[in-house]
Amino acid sequence: MQGLAVLAAPLETDLSPLTEHLWAQRIVHRVVEDNQQQILILADPADIPRVENLLQRWQAGELTPAATSSRFSPGRLIQRIWQTPVAASLVLILVCVFAWQHISPDWISWLRESEGLWPEARNRLSTYTDLGFWALWRPTILHFSVLHILFNALWVWIFVGAIEKQGERGAILALVIFCGLGGNLLQWWVAGPAFGGASGVVYGLCAYTGLRQTRFRIPYGIPKGVLILMVVMMLFTITGDTLIPGLSGIANGGHLGGLLVGFLLAVVWPVTKRGQDESR
Question: Are strands 37-42 and 4-10 parallel, antiparallel or unpaired?
Fold first, then answer.
């Protein structure tokens, strides 16, 4: 994005109150990292007078959370897409694949491809190497109902958008690949083929943001109780399906596998931004 740099701030500085007000006033901008600093860039120099006023209020600690409207706003949606194109692209991919499932039966073969291998061959390493990455990962993009796709697309939009705003696009790619793969592997091993959904990725994203914003104080902005709620829900469905097999109809292995991989990535992925030092 070309424009005019109007502010340079340390990485640990929380610019969210300022950027919220900028978007609320429809001032197009972007925050980028350069030389271990956050740089605020304006798209239109004509906005400088309004920005200077907001900067003064922000530096004085006078900015309160920007007022938001509960009504749908095309302008606000465009601003969010502009800020988080990776999140928007992932949601679009999921929706397009869901639409394709309704006009072509080709995806059904994805569910049946490995049915002859389970359960006899599930403990052989060669089974998974022969299937390959694509066959093991692709159930991630399949959804079987409107509620299913809406639930997963919404959480992808929220979690990926939060991670993307922190500049961690490489982490998003790793999470989508490895949480999807890890969840699918565990689900296939536990219950066999014929499953689908991005829930493993969603649980991985939840684990990643939940742990890192607690451990490293990275300001993703995800409510602290979300991770606890999702884990409790998972444990509830696992317990129900253990007592009455098939009760929930949920791929619990996919959820658990994605969650564990998400926790692992949260620990090993480099930390470039911190709200405060974790040793405090």
Answer: antiparallel
Of 158, 156, 126, whose CA–CA distance to 143 is shortest?
156
Edge-first strand order for the sheet with 37-42 is 4-10, 37-42, 29-34
Taken in order 7, 10, 11, 14, is the CA torsion positive or negative?
A: negative
Active-site residue numbers? 199, 255
Residue 111 CA to chain centroid, in angstroms?
Answer: 25
The pTM (predicted TM-score) of the whole model is 0.73
B/e letters for 3-33, b = 16+ CB within 10 Å, e = fewer, are eeebbeeeeeeeeebbbbbbbbeebbbebee
pLDDT digits (tens, 9 = 90+) for 184-240: 999 999 999 999 999 999 999 999 999 999 999 998 988 878 898 899 889 988 998
Nearest to 269 by CA among 169, 165, 185, 133: 169
Each residue's pLDDT tens digit, 6-15? 888 888 788 8
Tell me the three-class secondary structure of 15-83, residue by residue: CHHHHHHHHHCCCCEEEEEECCEEEEEECCHHHHHHHHHHHHHHHCCCCCCCCCCCCCCHHHHHHHHHH
